Amino acid sequence: MEQAIEKTGPITALGAMSGTSLDGVDAAIVVTDGVTIDRFGATAYKSYSAAERAVLASALGHWQGPEVDAATAVIEHVHRAVLEGFPEADVIGFHGQTLAHAPHTRGTLQVGDGAWLATALDRPVVWDFRTADVEMGGEGAPLAPFFHFACAKYIGATRPLAFLNLGGVGNLTYVDPSFDQPEAAGALLAFDTGPANAPMNDLVQARLGLPYDRDGQIAREGSVEKSALDRFLAEPYFARIPPKSLDRNDFSQMMDHVGDLQNADAAATLTAMSAAAVREGLRYCPQTPTQLLVTGGGRNNPVLMEMLRSTLACPVKPVEDVGLDGDMLEAQAFAYLSVRVARGLPTSCPGTTGVRTPVAGGTISYPNAAAVAVHNR
Ligand SMILES: Nc1ncnc2c1ncn2[C@@H]1O[C@H](COP(=O)(O)OP(=O)(O)OP(=O)(O)O)[C@@H](O)[C@H]1O
Ligand SMILES: CC(=O)N[C@H]1[C@@H]2OC[C@@H](O2)[C@@H](O)[C@@H]1O[C@H](C)C(=O)O
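Above: the input record for the complex with AH0. Below: its predicted structure, written as tokens.
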């Protein structure tokens, strides 16, 4: 039976994302036909309680077992609570929570059962966005780039630009908006740049019991230890040709590089490492982007933004400067991608994940019905 979400024309899609920082669930409406963004709609955010966050944190890096089951229950419960506040949604794009990501060995794991959510919310749910890409030889991440392409069109960009997400991990999308289709060779290049906020958060959590270095207050008082920065930049990841992706804790050994430094110098050095990773990544872009539009929580860290501005050859701006919402871009991405999946449009391509051919990755679950895998191979 063909559903409204599979027909042509714009529909109201609701996206939900729980990122690597484990802070909470973002939800956002996008009205789209899966190609053009008509408009952005309401948003919501629900923070995890300390107990919920602890359950999620202890499941990171696990592929199965009781920790995974407990994290799954938290993800389903909190998403249901946030998403039932959007009765206008025709479809829900549910990313879930990444617990483990090793695309070339064990695969990728996002928990939360979209089939259960579809029945709980009485709405079609598109989910498990990354598995098909990984099965087709891709990195399974990043997936926001096809949405970034649509955003570039939405803001009327005509010359190459880049989006930089500074979450726990950083990811960069180079967009050439002169192309008509995101999957066209040369339209997109995307990859994870390296660690962004995760090591800084881990440092201040371990040493000071703080969730993050608010406004870079600690890093601002310190100096960058050049030898530690050089050791970090010698990591083989930076020499790898993109596309490439990371798990949250792939760079947890960064803490060793700053282990001997006092708090402010350690924070300053980790902040400089995040900025330097972006500079290394930009070297792989076909040309210097005309602007770097920064999204994700790291754009609120003025020390990190200053370091980016002083080290990069292009203007660095928060996405708010072009009218986008940097707290919601990832949730909006999964709203947009859900419509593409429902309509069989690709969500990744060789330039974004290294997948062999463009893939529409995802599973559609209808209320009270079996899931339908729509991976087009
Ligand atoms: N005012 C601020 N000053 C410094 N850092 C900040 C500030 N606001 C947010 N952050 C950083 O941003 C992080 C949250 O970023 P974000 O919500 O984009 O992550 P995420 O979506 O969970 O991650 P990912 O994109 O990797 O999945 C916080 O953990 C913190 O490190
Ligand atoms: C495997 C996974 O969940 N990766 C996330 C993570 O968080 C940031 C970066 O690493 C990016 O690759 C991705 O998320 C965004 C939403 C993406 O897929 O575009």
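Notes for the reader.
The longest strand covers residues 91-102.
The first helix runs from residue 50 to 59.
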